[in-house]
Design goal:
The protein is mostly helical and 332 residues long. It has two domains: 234 residues, Alpha Horseshoe (Serine Threonine Protein Phosphatase 5, Tetratricopeptide repeat), CATH 1.25.40.10; 92 residues. It is 80% helix and 0% strand. It is built from 15 helices and no strands. Helix 8 packs parallel to helix 10 and helix 14 packs antiparallel against helix 15. The longest helix has 23 residues.
């Protein structure tokens, strides 16, 4: 569903202690009591936007501690000039970080704060994003019906705001798919994809297409599913979204294998492995290695089988010792 789970169900979704950030803010306040000029106000808001963008970049690559730092910096900057909508966005971003690392209670607290500030800002778009975040927390907790109700409320909040509407539609589609409402889910995804295409939001478009490919696969419409997964790959390539690319290639590889095209599946799994290794995505690295070892055996590639089996054993050993990077070494 976000960026908080694997690609098959990612949402848009996506903090250290409050006190250090608060202390810094109070220290800055004590240094100067001079009123800010309008230029300084806009400079601060622009700086907050830069921090938020940097946080998004680190969030996309799974560097959650660094993402959190920049979101905290954005929150501090927006708070200093009473930019209520920006404060709401920063709280929602922090909620994504917490949700990504499995700290659901803290994520709920951040999304609730985001909704409070969105109300004060009278921002329907920010209210939609915050409500979607609360839905993601419910979904992660297994309360899919509650999650869907929140996502549908987020759709209402979004109104005609394309970005937040696309987020809410995508999330609602994921919940509907999980509840067996595949046709409704597909319709929502198509609407979200149309919005994201018009807005040139390539990573989000890729997410829409990826879930559509998953739905088609579940319906055993494999040729259509592969074609859709390839369009997801195209969108992620436009965004240069490395983790998305690795996941898209894995999806195409898996569908290709189900179609009985083992040589084609081999090529896609190798590409997925290379991409996942390059961006440090151990989950997709493992998935690719398992598939490559199995396919190498079926295709009579004994040397390749030994190579990938050795890398898989290295990954097993590394994970047994604790969190670390995927095994080094490129594919032969």
């Amino acid at each position: 569903m976000s960026t908080t789970t694997n690609r098959g169900g990612r949402c848009y979704l996506a903090a250290l202690l409050v006190f250090p950030a608060l202390a810094c803010g109070l220290a800055a306040l004590s240094c100067s009591t001079a009123p800010k000029t309008p230029d300084v106000l806009y400079d601060t808001k622009n700086k907050a936007a830069e921090y938020s963008k940097l946080g998004d970049g680190f969030m996309a690559t799974g560097q959650y501690d660094t993402a959190e730092k920049y979101y905290r910096d954005a929150l501090q900057a927006d708070s200093s000039v009473d930019n209520l909508e920006g404060v709401s966005v920063s709280h929602a971003s922090l909620g994504r970080v917490y949700l990504a690392v499995g700290r659901r209670d803290e994520a709920r607290g951040e999304f609730t704060s985001a909704l409070d500030y969105a109300r004060m800002a009278q921002s329907s778009a920010a209210s939609s994003i915050a409500t979607s975040g609360l839905g993601e927390v419910s979904y992660a907790a297994g309360a899919k019906e509650d999650a869907l109700a929140l996502f549908e409320r987020a759709i209402v909040f979004a109104g005609k705001d394309g970005k937040s509407l696309a987020v809410a539609l995508h999330n609602a589609a994921v919940a509907k798919a999980a509840l067996g409402k595949g046709d409704e889910a597909m319709a929502d995804l198509q609407k979200a994809a149309s919005l994201n295409l018009g807005l040139k939001r390539w990573t989000e478009l890729a997410a829409n297409r990826y879930v559509m490919a998953s739905l088609l696969t579940a319906q055993n419409r494999l040729e259509e599913a592969r074609a859709m997964a390839l369009t997801a790959l195209d969108a992620d390539k436009r965004a240069e979204n490395g983790r998305g690319i690795a996941g898209d290639l894995a999806a195409v590889a898996s569908i290709t294998a189900r179609l009985g095209q083992k040589d084609g599946a081999w090529d896609y799994w190798r590409r997925s492995f290379d991409a996942a290794l390059a961006v440090g995505d151990p989950e997709t690295v493992r998935k690719a290695l398992v598939a490559l070892v199995s396919l190498a055996d079926e295709l009579g590639k004994s040397d390749d089988k030994a190579h990938y089996a050795a890398l898989l054993a290295k990954l097993d050993a590394a994970e047994a010792e604790g969190p670390s990077a995927p095994p080094g070494g490129a594919a032969p």
